[in-house]
């Protein structure tokens, strides 16, 4: 083997920090030692990994292609050291639990908090980093190995990732309780209404289009908002109608600000998905938190 883990660690840290000086501080190395490690590695690969822009080092196309495999390599090495007990004489079961989860908005805001609270009640020293974004952002975080796994509300269109069904989520069509709409709303009325929609790339947006457009054919009018919470409040204010997770609107339904519309549409639901990088080992407690089969996620 010609390249060392330390050299790849230097590359990844420079990519994150932007300069050899900043990377050296994070690694406990001098700037000259950091530069030497980078120069030695670049001398052995097919082309430079960084463009030099003033004092900053910015990954070029070659470097970007190698960044994710390098992160996976370092992550696997760290996991191997943990399993081998390097640097400690403690029972592995007593190690602090650290979980990193990426979740799209409905899942992150309405499905996971209760589960995480249960986990932390049983493991007070555990640390959970929950990163919430739209489905496309979560998939990108999984690809970069920024999270242990991702939970999304729409299908994953990126190759090279493991995607498994998680659970189903019921969708309802809602409007302001004061909206001047009949008790039973027909399809022409739905097609002509102003629809409150998430941005492209959102799993909610994709699920709404897949569920409604076969029946309505198009949205005559629409308003795009950047979050489920914004859509809820806009609907309650009478700005239009929306198709959202029943979980997401439960609070405003209970308060009487929103009402579920009776329509001729069939019951709507969507599949929620787990997305995992095949090079990432998912901690068993995370599989337990999400009620996933541990055998599937135990090893990379």
Structure description:
It contains twelve helices and eleven strands. With 300 residues, the protein is α/β, with parallel strands linked by helices. The protein has three domains: 80 residues, Winged helix-like DNA-binding domain superfamily/Winged helix DNA-binding domain (Arc Repressor Mutant, subunit A, Orthogonal Bundle), CATH 1.10.10; 99 residues, Periplasmic binding protein-like II (D-Maltodextrin-Binding Protein, domain 2); 101 residues, Periplasmic binding protein-like II (D-Maltodextrin-Binding Protein, domain 2), CATH 3.40.190.10. Strands 3, 4, 5, 6, 9, 10 and 11 form a seven-stranded mixed β-sheet that branches. Helix 1 packs across helix 2, helix 1 packs across helix 3 and helix 1 packs across helix 4. It starts with a helix and ends with a helix. The model has no long low-confidence stretch (mean pLDDT 87).
Give the structure's gist in a few sentences.
The protein has 300 residues and is of the alpha/beta class.
Shape: elongated
Provide the domain count: 3
Strand content: 15-25%
Which CATH class of the largest domain applies here?
Alpha Beta
Structural class: alpha/beta
Mean pLDDT: 87
Termini distance? Answer: 22 Å
Fourth-tier CATH superfamily name of the largest domain:
Periplasmic binding protein-like II
């Amino acid at each position: 083997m010609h390249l060392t883990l330390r050299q790849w660690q230097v590359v990844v840290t420079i990519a994150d920090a932007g300069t050899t000086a900043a990377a050296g501080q994070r690694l406990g190395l001098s700037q000259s030692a950091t530069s030497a490690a980078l120069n030695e590695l670049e001398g052995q690969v097919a082309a430079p990994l960084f463009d030099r822009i003033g004092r900053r080092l910015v990954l070029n196309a070659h470097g970007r292609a190698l960044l994710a495999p390098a992160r996976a390599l370092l992550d696997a090495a760290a996991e191997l050291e943990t399993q081998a007990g390097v640097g400690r004489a403690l029972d592995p079961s007593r190690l602090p639990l650290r979980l990193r989860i990426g979740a799209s908005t409905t899942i992150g805001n309405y499905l996971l908090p209760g589960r995480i609270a249960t986990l932390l009640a049983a493991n007070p020293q555990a640390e959970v980093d929950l990163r919430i974004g739209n489905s496309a952002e979560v998939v990108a975080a999984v690809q970069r190995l920024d999270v242990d796994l991702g939970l999304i509300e729409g299908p994953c269109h990126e190759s090279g990732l493991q995607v498994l069904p998680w659970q189903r989520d019921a969708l309802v069509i809602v409007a302001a309780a004061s909206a001047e709409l009949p008790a039973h709303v027909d399809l022409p009325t739905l097609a002509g209404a102003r629809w409150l929609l998430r941005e492209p790339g959102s799993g909610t947006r994709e699920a709404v289009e897949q569920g409604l457009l076969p029946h309505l054919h198009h949205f005559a009018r629409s308003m795009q908002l950047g979050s489920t919470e914004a859509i809820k409040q806009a609907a309650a204010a009478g700005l239009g109608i929306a198709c959202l997770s029943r979980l997401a609107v439960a609070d405003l339904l209970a308060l009487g600000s929103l009402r579920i519309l009776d329509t001729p549409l069939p019951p709507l639901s969507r599949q929620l998905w787990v997305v995992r990088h095949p090079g990432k080992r998912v901690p068993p407690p995370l599989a337990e938190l999400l009620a996933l089969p541990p055998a599937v996620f135990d090893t990379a």
